[in-house]
Fold this protein.
Amino acid sequence: MPTFHDPVADAAEAHEVLRALAHASRTFDDPAHTYTVMGELLGGLRSLAQVLEQVATAHTWDESRAHTDSGDHWAGVEEAFAAANALRRAASLVRRAELAVDQASQHSGRVAWAPATERRGTSPERAPRALFGDGDRFAHRALSERRGLSL
């Protein structure tokens, strides 16, 4: 249960919840549920970008307390500001990921999934890459482009 006041405990819980989602989302009994999951992921990405910005700010808020393990204050300040800059870059990248997931959600929202029938062929997590090997992203791209999709 989130505390809303202990960032260490809430970060640990977020990690566990994301691990559970990674496990649960390996397969979907109903592909229409992917739309709902993407909506929740969008909210999570927005919150993650905010958290990264706040952690960045915490690194530079009280620079008088920053030191290295050897006691060097100015080197500690440099490291704190470098960490803050890296965190702000990460927040920017997460916002870009949010835009991509939002676009995917819009496309997914236009899919009308037919009721399930008997499944044939390979499982969704193995196709179409299984045709060329898991690491062949160019083959996957060729198949996607042939279907009019873009990566």
User: Anything to note?
Assistant: The radius of gyration is 21 Å. The chain has four helices and no strands.
